Amino acid sequence: MTVFKILLRIPWHLLFLAGILVLVGSLALYSASQGSWQPWAGRHAVRAIVGMALVVCIAFIDFSFIKRMSYVFLAAAILVLLAVMVVGTGQGVSRWITIGGMNFQPSEPAKLAVILALARYFSSQPHDRMRSFVWYLPAFAIIAVPFAMIVKQPDLGTALMLLFGGLVVVFSAGLPWRYVFGSLAAVLAAVPLLWLQLKAYQKARVMTFLNPETDVLGAGYQITQSKIALGSGGFFGKGFLMGSQSQLNYLPEKQTDFVFTMIGEEFGFAGNIFILLIYLLITIAILRISFRVNSRFAQLTCIGIGMMVFFYMFVNVAMVTGLLPVVGAPLPLISYGGTSMLTVFIGFGIVASAIVHDRRQS
Amino acid sequence: MSRAKTKDLRRTMSRRGLLLVGGSALLTSFLGARLFQLQVAQNNRYQRLSDRNQFDVRIVAPTRGRLFDRKMRLLAGNAESFELYITPLYVDDLQQTLAALGQIVELSERDIKAVLLAARKGPSFRDIIVRNDLSQRELARLAVRSPLLGGVSFGKSLRRIYPQGSLACHITGYVSPVTAREIENNQSLEKTPYLGTGKVGVEFAHEDYLRGLPGRERIEVNAKGQPIRVLRDVDAMSGKDLQLSIDIEVQLQAAEILRRGQLAPVELGTMQVQRALAKNSELQAHIALGDDLVLRDEKDRLVPPESGAVVVMDIYSGEVISLVSAPMFDPNLFTGTLLTRDWRRLNSHPRTPLLNRATSGQYAPGSTFKMVVGLAAIEAGVISKNTQFNCSGDMELGNATFHCWRKGGHGMMNIISALEQSCDVFFYEVALKTGIRKIKDMAHRLGLGDVTGIGLPGEKPGIIPSHEWKLANQGRVWTPGETVVSSIGQGYVLATPLQLAVMTARLANGKQAVTPRLVKSTGDAAPDFAPLDVDPYALAIIREGMFEVMNGGFGTARKYDLDKSLGGMAGKTGTVQVKRITKAQREEGIVNNIDRPWAERDHALFVAYAPVKRPRYAISVVVEHGGSGSSTAAPVARDILTKLMQKQG
C-alpha cells in the first residue's frame, strides 16, 4: 500500500472532530488562567498536535501486528500497574508513575489494553462455543485483574470506566441476553461488597453525593459550586472570560475535572450541548467504522474504543452535573492532563489502523 | 466456521452495535435534559445564587481544651484577643490603605506582603487578617481612625495564655501559629492556619485531644460583598480539658528551692548591683528573659540562679507531682507572633532554657548508680550483706589506678557502709566480680537506658553501656577498666533526672515497675504496672544503705535528713566530675570547686524517697555544676520534701 493510499484512508473526520474539542479545551484553559496561555492552554494545544501526529503514525502500523501484540499489551499494562503499586506517587494513593518529571497514569492506557485483549480473545474463538458461560470466564478475568488493581490504587472512576469498556466488548461479542441480565443482577448484589472495599474518602464522596449539604467545604463544596456555575450560565453563558464563579476561584479543579462546568458558565447551555454533540458524533463515527471493517477483531476493537470515548464524556458530565458522585474523571481532549488525551489519541490511531489496513476496503 | 453462522454472528454484532449507538444517543439526550434543567429551567435560581448571593464559607475556630494541675488550677487557658481585618472588596487602593494602617498599628513588611498575597488569591469579599494581638492602645486608635478607612474592621478571637508564666513551661510546652511544614504533613490545617498547634510538651503530645473540631459558618453576601446573613452550619466542637498530675504549688516551691540553692538573692535596684550587671553578659542574658533572680555566692560574686532539674513522683501511681527544669522560659512569648528579638535571646542564652533537662538532659548519674551495682551483685550472689572489701583509697587494675573519692580510703566496707559513705573502691571490686552484663540488666529493670514513656516529646533514653553497645558505637571491645568506671555511674553511663526518679520510685515501691505519667489518673483503679521482679531481700539491703546515708555516723547526707516528725527519708548522693582531674592537680591537692569556672565544676545529684517507713514519694535532684551531691543537691531535696510532707500533714 502506498503512503498516499494510507493517508487517503485515514478517518480525517475523526481528527477534525477531535480538533474542535481541543480548540474548545484550549480556549477554556486560556480562560481558566484568567486569560493567559500559561500555564495550561499553550501546553494543551502543543500536546494535542503531538497527539494527532501520533494518530497518523499509528495508522501506518499494520493492524495485524496490533492484533498479534494485543496480549503483550495487556501483560505490559498489568506489569506497569504492579509497578505503580510499588513505586507509585499521589496523595495517599498510588496512581501515578513519574518518568523524567512527567506524571503518567498507567490505568488510562490499561483501558485500551483490555479492549484489545478482549477483542483478540473473542475473534479467536469459534462461534458455536458462544452459548456456554464457561467460554466467557477468561474474558471476565481479562477485565477483572486490571480492574481490581486500579480499584486498589484507589481510582474508582477509572476502574469503573475500564469495567464498562470491557463489558461493552463482551456484550458486542454476542453475550446471550440471559447472561446480560444475570450479570446485572450479580453486579447489584456486589454493591455492598464493593462498599466495604472503599476508602474512607471514597465513602465520604458517595455520601456527599447522596446529600451534598453534609460537606459544604469538601466534595460537597465542589458539587454545589459546580451546579451554581453551570446553572448561572443560562442559555448562552456569561461570555468568554466572564464566568464569575470560575474567575473568582469558586470552582475547584476548573482546569481538569470541572472544565465542562467552566465552559457551561461562560458559553451556557448552547456551548455544553455543542460539546455533547461532538462527543456523540465521534462515538457514532467510530461505531460506523466498526460496521465497515471486515475482521471480528477490528469490529470489536472499534466498538470498544468508540464506547470508551463515550464513557469518558458521560462519566465526567454526569459527575459535574451532580448525577454521579465526584469520582475524579477527566473530560478527554478538553481537560488539562496528558494521559487521558494520549489514551484517546492512541485509540483513534488504532481505529485508523483498523480501517486503513482492512481487507474489505482494498 | 460455517458461512451461515458467520453471517448470523455478524448480524448479532451489528444489532448490538446499533443498540450501543442508540444507547449512547439516549444517554446523551439524558445529559442534555439535565443541562436543560440546570441551565435553562432553574437558571433564575442559580443566577441568583451566583450573582447576588455569593456564599462565603468561614471556619469557626474551636476553643482549645484547657490544662489544669491536679487541684484544677489553670495551667493553660484561652484569653480574648483582638484582630484587625481588611476586606479587599471595599478597599480602593489596598497598598495605600495598608500604608495608612501602618501609621496606626505596628505592621511589619512581612505582614503587608502576606495580606497582598492573600488578596490576590482569595475572593475579594473574604476578610483577611492583617494583625492579631492588638494592644489596648492600638484598639483605641483604631476605633477613632478606622471608620475613615473603607474595608477595615476588627474582631475578637482567642489566644492561648499560660497564667503560671514560666513555672510549668517544660510540662505544658506551648502553642504557636501553624508552620508551612505542618501544613505539608496535614492538609486539614490549611483551612485554619490562624489556629495554633502545640509545638512541645503536653500541648504537642495531646494535640488531637486538646484541639477540638472547627465549625463552619456560611455567609451570604450580596453583589457588593456585604454580608446579608450568617448561617451556622456546624458548631465548632471545643477541645477537651486535661487534668495533669502536677501540683503547681509544689512546682513553685521546687523551682524556687532549686534555683536559689544555698545562696542569698540580691536586691536588683542598688547601684552596686546595677554596675556589676553591666559588666556581666551572662547575667544580662538572664535578666533579658524576665528572670529577676540574681544570687550572691560565697565569694561575694553575683551569679545567675542555679540550673538543673527536679522530679517528684508518686511511687505507687507513677504520677509526676513536680517536674522542674531550670532555667525556664515564658511560653506566652510563643502564642502570638514570636518576636525575633525574643527568639534570639532564648537561643543565645548560655544555659539553653528551651531544653527540658528533666526528660532530655542526660547526666552521668555518678554515685546514685551504686544502688544498681549493689542490687545486681547481691542478686548474682557475688556479695551478701556482710561481704567486706578493704578500701585503701585506690585500686590497681593492670597498670591503671582507680581512686576512691576519699584520699585515705575507707577501710573495711560492706554494702551498707559502702552506700552510706559512698565508697568507690568497694563498688569497683563488686562490679568487676558481677560483670557489666548483669549490671546493665539491673539498670534496665530499674528504668534506666530506655525512655520512660512519660509522653513528652524529645525524651532521651540515656545510655547504659555494655559490650555490644561499645562495639556498635565505638567499634572497640569493652575493657574491665570501663566496668570499674561504670560502677560509679561515670564513663559512658548517662541518665535523665526523670529516669533517676523512676529508679528511686521502683526501689521504694519494690513490687511494681512504676512508670511516670503526667496526666492525672481518673477513678480509683490502681495503675497496672508490670511486676518489678527484683529480689525483695536484696532491695531491703539497698534501702538500709540508703537509710544510713541520711542517718549513719558517716552518712554522706547525714546533715540533710528530712525531719523525723515528717518521716525522714532515705537517699543517695552523687557528685559527678565534669572535667578530669589531672595527676598534677591530684598531687598538689584538688582545686576547690568554687574556685573553678562554673562550667568545670562538678554536677551535684541526689535521689531519695520519703517517708522511710511507708514510702510515698520519690525525688531526684540535679544541680548543674552545683558542687557536691551532699551539700548542694541533698538540701534541695530535703526542702522540697519538707514542704510537700507538711502539706500532707
Sequence-ordered SSE layout with sheet pairings:
The complex is a heterodimer of chains A (362) and B (649).
Chain A: H1 3-9, H2 12-32, H3 41-60, H4 63-87, E1 97-99, E2 102-104, H5 107-123, H6 137-152, H7 156-172, H8 177-197, H9 200-210, H10 219-233, H11 244-247, H12 259-292, H13 296-320, H14 338-356
Antiparallel strand pairs in A: 1-2
Helix pairs in contact in A: 2-3, 2-12, 3-14, 4-5, 4-6, 5-6, 5-7, 5-13, 5-14, 6-7, 7-13, 10-12, 12-13, 13-14
Chain B: H1 3-41, H2 43-52, E1 54-60, E2 67-68, E3 74-86, H3 94-104, H4 109-121, E4 128-131, H5 136-145, E5 152-161, H6 169-172, E6 175-176, H7 180-185, E7 197-198, H8 201-205, H9 207-211, E8 215-221, E9 227-234, E10 242-243, H10 248-260, E11 264-265, H11 271-279, H12 281-288, E12 295-296, E13 302-303, E14 308-314, E15 320-326, H13 332-335, H14 340-348, H15 357-360, H16 370-380, E16 389-391, E17 394-397, E18 400-403, E19 411-413, H17 415-421, H18 424-434, H19 436-445, H20 467-474, H21 480-487, H22 497-509, H23 536-551, E20 570-576, H24 583-587, E21 603-610, E22 617-623, H25 629-648
Parallel strand pairs in B: 2-10
Antiparallel strand pairs in B: 1-8, 2-3, 3-4, 3-5, 6-7, 8-9, 11-12, 12-13, 14-15, 14-22, 16-19, 17-18, 20-21, 21-22
Helix pairs in contact in B: 10-25, 16-18, 16-19, 17-23, 18-21
Task: Characterise the protein shown here.
- The complex is a heterodimer of chains A (362) and B (649).
- Chain A has 14 helices and two strands.
- With 362 residues, chain A is mostly helical.
- The longest helix of chain A has 34 residues.
- Chain A is globular and about 60 Å long.
- The model of chain A has no long low-confidence stretch (mean pLDDT 85).
- Chain B is globular, with a radius of gyration of 34 Å.
- With 649 residues, chain B is of the alpha+beta class.
- In chain B, strand 21 and strand 22 form a beta hairpin.
- The mean pLDDT of chain B is 86.
- At the A-B interface, helix 7, helix 10, helix 12 and helix 13 of A face helix 1 and helix 2 of B.
